[in-house]
């Protein structure tokens, strides 16, 4: 039967998108049970989880005892001032680690196909734009204007919701106040479209107000407008918001 400390460990790991194997949980619980101060228990759990996220290259969110021990040892060395982790590394252009964004875990994970070739296949171009879209989409979703409102919160700031193009294509009704992140393309002469991984929609730019900047085919933009008769009527177009390094 799980103890309160064991349940707290399981909950903390689940909040970060991980699960512990039974032997790993019992070992971690035995180590933390030796600490009398509850705040110290939470502090060490946070340190171990941070180490797992930053330093361990896991192939699965299920953590075994060996991976847990490595994280604990790294934390112990760092606390004792014996941390030998390299701050700066020089990596060959053909050996740069490749990561892909996981919507399930909401973080970047090592790619299943890490090879880096000088001359890639035809599908590499589509993969490049998909990766670029994933990066901008998750960055935009973290912005204050797009984060969901907190229940019971006092903030009166208006919140927006990003929609995918298949949301438009799946209805025949008029949709107003729609915001979409997508890539500008021109499939027909003098007729611009908006693309994302779910589909393509034709844009009407006759009444569009543009944010200052350079717009070209292949660039990603945030567009606001309404959808009717298989056309997205854009009233405002701008670039995805930037994000501070911290």
From TrEMBL:
Domain DNA polymerase epsilon subunit B N-terminal per the UniProt entry, residue ranges: 2-75
Molecular function as annotated in GO: DNA binding
InterPro entries associated with the record: DNA_pol_e_bsu_N, POLE2
Superkingdom to which the source organism belongs: Eukaryota
Gene Ontology biological process terms, A to Z: DNA-templated DNA replication; error-prone translesion synthesis
Pfam families given in the database record: Dpoe2NT
GO cellular component terms listed in the entry, alphabetical order: epsilon DNA polymerase complex
Protein name listed in UniProt: DNA polymerase epsilon subunit 2like [Saccoglossus kowalevskii]
């Amino acid at each position: 039967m799980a103890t309160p400390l064991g349940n707290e460990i399981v909950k903390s790991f689940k909040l970060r998108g991980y699960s512990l194997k039974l032997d790993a949980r019992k070992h971690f619980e035995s180590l933390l049970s030796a600490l009398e101060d509850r705040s110290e228990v939470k502090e060490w759990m946070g340190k171990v989880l941070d180490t797992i996220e930053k330093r361990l290259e896991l192939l699965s969110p299920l953590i075994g005892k060996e991976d847990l021990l490595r994280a604990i040892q790294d934390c112990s060395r760092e606390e004792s001032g014996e941390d030998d982790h390299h701050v700066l590394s020089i990596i060959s252009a053909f050996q740069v680690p490749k990561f892909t964004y996981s919507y399930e875990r909401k973080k970047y994970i090592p790619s299943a196909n890490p090879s880096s070739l000088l001359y890639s296949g035809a599908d590499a171009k589509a993969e490049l734009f998909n990766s670029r879209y994933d990066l901008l989409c998750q960055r935009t979703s973290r912005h204050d204007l797009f984060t969901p409102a907190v229940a019971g919160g006092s903030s009166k700031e208006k919140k927006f919701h990003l929609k995918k193009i298949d949301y438009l294509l799946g209805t025949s009704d008029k949709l107003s106040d729609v915001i979409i992140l997508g890539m500008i393309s021109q499939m027909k002469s003098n007729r611009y479209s908006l693309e994302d991984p779910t589909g393509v929609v034709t844009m009407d730019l006759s009444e569009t107000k543009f944010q200052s900047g350079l717009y070209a085919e292949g660039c990603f933009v945030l567009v606001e407008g309404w959808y009717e008769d298989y056309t997205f009527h854009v009233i405002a177009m701008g670039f995805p918001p930037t994000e501070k390094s911290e």
